[in-house]
Amino acid sequence: MKAKLLDDLDLVTTTMRHRRIWPSISDDGSPAREAFQASPSLTYLGMFEGHEYLGLFVLHQHNAIMWEVHTCLLPSAWGSRAQACAKLCVEWIFDNTECRRLITSVPVGNALAERLAGAAGMVRYGTNPRSFLKNGQELDQIMLGISKGATCQPQQ
Predict the structure, then answer these.
(1) Rounded distance, CA 87 to CA 81, Å?
(2) What are phi and psi of 98, to 5 degrees?
(3) CB atoms within 10 A of CB 95
(4) Taking the alpha carbons of 112, 63, 44, 20 in that order, is the dihedral positive or negative?
(5) How large is the greatest C-alpha to C-alpha distance in the chain, in angstroms?
(6) What is the three-state SS of the chain?
(7) Burial bucket for residue 12 (CB in 10 Å: 0-12, 13-18, 19+)
(8) Sheet harboring 52-61: ordered strands across?
């Protein structure tokens, strides 16, 4: 498996608009799926197995040492391949950027995303109450993170 920065915003947009990905990454404030465009101000890390494109991770740098990550892996990468991608993403970020703390947020009820973050070594550090609006419902978000130097061992 290989990680590579993506500069093809059409590929990024198409990936994020995928009918199986969009419902998990959008909220009530998002544009219509067909109107969404990837932002050139964010960083996109593509995942590949051989020549097969598996999807991407969206990276947002908050400050000099803390980045936020969100997952947009295609269905063909779900399962054990997603876990390998998530671990590789964490390793790539710590090896190739100045990031020392990587965080993510997962709306309550998205158990798959929470398990994937745990499989990459992220640990729950808090809850952001009523911070995500989906289908008119205010949901809490689970806050997870990992610091550089921590092992990427799955959480029990």
Answers:
(1) 10
(2) -85, 5
(3) 10
(4) positive
(5) 41
(6) CEEEECCCHHHHHHHHCCCCCHHHHCCCCCCCHHHCCCCCCCEEEEEEECCEEEEEEEEEECCCCEEEEEEEECHHHCCHHHHHHHHHHHHHHHHHCCCCEEEEEEECCCHHHHHHHHHCCCEEEEEEEEEEEECCEEEEEEEEEEECCCCCCCCC
(7) buried
(8) 2-5, 43-49, 52-61, 66-73, 101-107, 137-147, 123-134
Token representation of residue 108: 């309550």
Look at the block and give the residue holding tokens 């965080």.
103
Single pTM value for the model: 0.93
pLDDT digit string (tens) for 110-129? 999 999 999 999 999 999 99
From the list 20, 27, 92, the residue with the least C-alpha distance to 59 is: 92
What residue type is 93 in one-letter code? I
How far is it, in rounded angstroms, from Cα 27 to Cα 40?
A: 20
What digits encode the pLDDT tens for the residues 77-122?
999 999 999 999 999 999 999 999 999 999 999 999 999 999 999 9
